[in-house]
Amino acid sequence: MKDVFSTYKPPFDVKIGEVPISVSEENGILIYRRQDDDDIYEKMILNGNSEILINPIEPVNLPKSLSPFLLIELEKPLVVSPKSKQIIFLTFPIEIGVFVSDKELRILDIFSFNNGKFTLYGPQNNGLICRYWKSEVFTSIPQINSLHQGAIEIEINNDINEWSEITQIVFNAYGMKIYHGDGRISMKANMKIQSRSIAETSFTLLPTTSLFKRSVELYTARKIAINVSKCVMEHGL
Amino acid sequence: MNNSTFFPYSLPSLSGIVLDAISVVLILFISLIFAKVATIYTQRSLKEKMEKEHLNILNKTIYYGIITLSILLFIFPILKIEASSLLVAGGVVGIVIGFASQSIVGNLISGIFLMIERPVKIGDQINIEGNYGFVEDINLVSTIMRTYDGLYIRVPNETVFTTNIVNFVANSARRFEYNVGVRYDDDADKAIAIIEDLIEAQPLALKNPVPQVFVHELADNAVTILVRIWCPPTEWYSVKMEMLWNIKKTLEENEIEIAFPQRTVWFANELSLKTKDENIK
User: Fold this and answer.
1) Residues from chain A contacting residue B207 (CB–CB below 8 Å)
2) How far apart (Å, rounded) are the C-alpha atoms in residues A32 and A43?
3) Is residue B37 part of a domain?
4) Which domain holds residue B186?
5) Per the domain annotation, does A202 fall within a domain?
6) Inter-chain contact A116–B173, Cβ cutoff 8 Å?
7) CATH code of B137's domain
8) Which domain holds residue A183?
9) Which of B63, B81, B99 is the last residue of a domain?
10) Is residue B142 one of the residues assigned to a domain?
11) Are the beta carbons of B49 and A225 closer than 8 angstroms?
12) What does the alpha-carbon distance between residue B24 and residue A52 come to, in Å, rounded to a whole number?
């Protein structure tokens, strides 16, 4: 399968799933178009030499960028033995970012094939609003539609002397390292269980090849100074 | 400090006092411009990297810091004022100022406490004394609000500090509820299922805390279904407006109608109709 997540030199037409995307040139101005059902989303680019980059980005921007947190609820609770290390795979939603680049990158458009949903992690007074996703737990890389979902490999370290039960995992999008290519979209993360109700999650790097590349994440493109890329789950697992 | 430091080309026709006054005004003017330029530069370079609230405090610190420094370093020497003498004078002046500007000092101290306690932040949606709107700025002596209908309101900090403040966005989630009355003939279970599906399809209606939809009351004219939905506080109003109309439309599409007041009247005897041409039928 040809990887649609790539850099395109205008003018071009491409179909991401069922969504036609085109950049045409009209009087020296580039016109970006994305057809979404009956609506056409358009933007004008006042630079004829720009290139367009399409790749998966952090799944926390749609339908509205309200929070940098992604909460994945497990379909079945996971019980982890004391002082152990386990590897599991979950799915996560995909959002696709379209960037225009000429020396600098700038986000042009974001779309997704998934319906967004938000949830609250923690109590109502100081909990975290999170993008919500529900996933089965897999023990190997799941076979999924890479335009809709990606697979996240999570190394769970239960550092305590007790059994731990996990029903949900929260990630901070500032720090997500998303990879694509070879027909899949992947991330790798760690979860350190520090007590019965506290854990810390973070992302780690994956080895890249010519076919399996790192995405340009939104926070990288926006040059946001990242202070905290980890997420401390202090309101229960 | 010698005046010639500031004005190398001396003006012999002006007396020393006038020259000092001009120097003070000029220095004050230059330091005000410098402070303004510095805050604009900070605002532009840190706008996307800092929270608006923190950036505002930083800008105010820079602005007033530059002015204070210029007064201490340049204006006091011109006026031949020693900072240490201010401590002595300060006691007497403080009492005078205290009496003369009691409310200003009260507002100032309230402003400092507001910045420490932070019951409201810039951008928050609040209600102070019946004024609903956004906090636009928190200054040393007053808080600036923009009401929902676009009015500018300046509230003295003492008022903000001493009255009840309702902050609509201080917590992470906010709930709203509807009473949906359907007819007794309609299937309430079906209506509940439809409303639950609509909540599920609305991205900003939170998955957790779990929304509640249940038959709340068997009222005179309708079976009342209570719908409780939690939202991010900033999206509360738009979701509340959108969901209510969606519920009404979707229920009607499924032949479930919103009940209106009605009364069934039973007659003890059979009804009869009398016309001009006929006797009682």
Assistant:
1) 117-119, 132
2) 5
3) yes
4) 174-253
5) yes
6) no
7) 2.30.30.60
8) 7-233
9) B81
10) yes
11) yes
12) 57
In a domain, B120, yes or no: yes
| Inter-chain touch A127–B173, beta carbons under 8 Å | yes
Q: Are A109 and A98 in contact (CB under 8 A)?
A: yes
d(CA A136, CA B164): 47
| Nearest residue of A to residue B50, measured between CA atoms | A225
Check whether residue B9 and residue B52 sit in a common domain.
yes
| Cβ neighbours of B255 (radius 10 Å) | 9
**B211 within domain boundaries:** yes
Sign of CA dihedral B152, B157, B162, B168: positive
Are both B12 and B68 inside the same structural domain?
A: yes
* Residues of chain A contacting B172 with CB distance shorter than 8 Å: 120, 122-129
Residue B51 Cα, gap to closest chain A Cα (Å): 12
> Who among B48, B170, B232 is closest to A118 (CB)?
B232
pLDDT tens across the length of chain A (237 residues): 467 888 888 888 888 888 888 888 888 788 899 988 778 888 888 876 788 889 898 888 888 888 889 999 999 999 999 888 989 999 999 899 998 888 788 888 898 888 889 999 989 888 899 999 999 999 888 888 888 889 999 999 998 888 989 999 999 888 788 888 878 888 999 999 988 888 999 888 877 777 778 888 777 666 555 556 788 888 888
Domain presence at residue A1: no
* Chain A residues whose C-beta sits inside 8 Å of any chain B C-beta: 63-64, 66-67, 115-129, 132, 222, 224-225
How many cross-chain Cβ pairs, A to B, lie less than 8 Å apart? 55
CB contact under 8 A, A224 and B232: no
Domain count, chain A: 1
Q: For residues B150 and B196, state if they share a domain.
A: no
Domain count, chain B: 3
Q: Tell me the angle at which helices B83-100 and B102-117 cross, rounded to the nearest 10 degrees.
A: 110
CATH of the domain at B245: 3.30.70.100
